[in-house]
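Study this pair:
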Amino acid sequence: MLLAIAKKHIPTPTPIYEDLDKYQRQLIAFMSHHAHKTYLSAQLPATFTQLNSDETLIIVDYKMRINPKKARETKDEWFGKCEWILHSVLLYTKDQNTNNININAFDHWSGDTKQDA
């Protein structure tokens, strides 16, 4: 859309077309991420209301990949190195007496860097 508007007002192709196209793709990706996050944030309270006192909600979230060596290595230098993956595990339970939600957080460090896609 931005690219089409720019082409109407800038008659000859310029590098600005590529920049605008890149910025438009980044903006769409951000808006998609934000909409997804908002949707998931709305689902969590609804799930809590359905949680019984004898149930647990477990959320596992990927946090980061950690390389113990240098931060600035080329791809060739990076390939095949040992690294770790950090996941955060959240356990949500409901207190039987007060109906309050209790949260326990755990960090899981793993040497398995394969992605299961």
In short: The mean pLDDT is 77. The longest helix spans residues 15-50. The chain has two domains: 1-50, 52-117. The two ends are 32 Å apart (CA to CA).
